[in-house]
Amino acid sequence: GAGGRIGSSLVEELLGIKDIKVVALNEILGAKHLVSRYRDFADVNYFSDNEIKINGESVAVYSEKKASEIPWLVHGVKIVEECSGFYCDGEGNADARAHLGNGVERVIVSAPAKGDGLATLIMGVNHKKFVPAKHTYISNASCTTKALAGPLKILVDAEIKVESLLMDTVHASTSSQQVLETLNNIVLAGTGAASATGLVISDLAGRMGGFAARVPTTDGSFANIYLVGVYKGDLDKEKINSIFQERLSKEYYCGRVGYLGGEEISSRDDIVGDKRNGIVIGHYTNVR
Fold this sequence. Notes:
This protein is of the alpha/beta class. It has helices at residues 5-14, 31-38, 143-157, 179-182, 193-200, 237-247, 267-271; strands at 24-26, 44-48, 51-54, 57-62, 79-82, 106-109, 119-120, 137-139, 161-172, 187-190, 208-215, 221-230, 257-260, 278-281.
């Protein structure tokens, strides 16, 4: 919903874009919850369970559990950002396409999703494949997929042919876990990031596998990539890092993938709060 980690971050971003206006929000926990979350980045006031004001602008608030029952048309909504994490299955009550119609022209899901007509698009990877008239149902993939896909896109574009690839991610605990389950515990889980990366980089389709280890932190993650690659020239650590650094200055990737060269990197100090899709840690690049 609009008051979750992703929803709140998105609202903060949208408030800084002059051509976009936030007019309606849906949050199961209600308007007061939104006020408590938004106070960190906006002047926000509670008026009723159905209205808050953000920086002086009135914004309607709903707490509907079914997407089809949110009256987006009343507010002239054209684009719905679906950030609850629930509407991802592409069927039944969990189908994000229920937002479409009644004025809504496009729904963008902030998580991996399923269903006919879905386009999975990531900035800096395959965003130029966006066709406005065709892509009305869009997934922005997962945080891990974006972190993997950006650097891998750079390598593929540098003509490093990836024969096979394994990945793992050390990931903050997620909302699907019980609170006590995360304490003093590392949970191994599957991840759809490997297959999803193949959706946005066709050269990698069917060549990837991996898993996730969820650890008891609230935010941030690291991903490791192990690949067998073929390159026409000599390839070593310095060459790969120079490829990253050179291409990160180009417009297509700029601002979407970052680079850090240091050895002492932490999720709290170096990752959380960074708005880029992924950050390459050059110190740990290795070639064998």
